[in-house]
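Ex. 9. Protein: Asp23/Gls24 family envelope stress response protein.
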Amino acid sequence: MIIETDLGTVTIKPEVFNEIVYRAALESYGTVDIGKGGLLNKLASVLQKPQEKGVEVIEEDNKVTVNLYIYMEYGLPLKRVAANAQENVYHRIKEALGDVDVTVNVKVVGIKI
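Predicted structure tokens for Asp23/Gls24 family envelope stress response protein:
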């Protein structure tokens, strides 16, 4: 990701961006794990770093779209958990990158006890 500032250009590696999203999501209320559901995705996630397995970042024309796949804790309200993860990731990205157009999509792929 490339960000233009008054002082010049800042380049952020995708790994750093994924790490910001991963940590913000795991710190959110009710989020237990991150990763896509399904057997093939679980097998593929063994080869991936933890911060890459449930985070998709799409960057286009100074707009960032984050697709986040989470597992939530059993017994908690789905809407509240998803909204909390969405808000937490959104605010962390805004805090780190400044004035960037951000959209965060949260997909709950499972429930864990």
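Check your answer against this statement. The mean pLDDT is 82.
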